[in-house]
Design a protein that fits this description.
Blueprint lengths: L4 E3 L6 H10 L3 E2 L15 E2 L3 H4 L1 H14 L3 H5 L2 E10 L16 E6 L4 E9 L5 E7 L4 E5 L3 E5 L10 E10 L1
Antiparallel strand pairs: 1-8, 2-3, 3-4, 4-10, 5-8, 5-10, 6-7, 6-9
Amino acid sequence: MLSTIVIDNFFDNFELLLPEFKKIPLHDYNSYPEKDENSVWPGKRSLHLGKTHPFIWQLTNKEIQQKSGNERLMYSRWKMSVNTHLRLAEDEEPDYIHTDPDDWTMIVFLSETNLKSGLSIYDKNKQETQNIKFVQNRAVLFNGKQFHRSSLNYGDSIDNGRLTLNCFINFL
């Protein structure tokens, strides 16, 4: 099983990328044109960046391969779905502990550092085993089948809310 990998300073020249992440259009679940009827999520999410913003998708792919230190990611074939996700204070209550159907999940914290927020990972009994703090430009790569949840959604806009880059990786 994959151990959690934390990569600080995931994107080089992050200060140039952040304004571009904030320009990406977001949709709530009800208006999301590509929704999977088997999953629901709070907040707002972009379409898959591989289709709408291929440069960001490719840059994310490159950074994972170069910075994860994981041989499987460096040498195996895999596919990845990437989107931005905004969660605000109003999304805290509808958020929930869940698993992803993907082999691995990676979350990159895009907003300003907020040490009250982060990512919680749980064991099979839904007892928290890890809490990774929300540090801007930090990537957290983990087994998507592990229970997890955002810890503290906050703010009321893209400028002060919890903006992340969510990546879902499946090996071929």
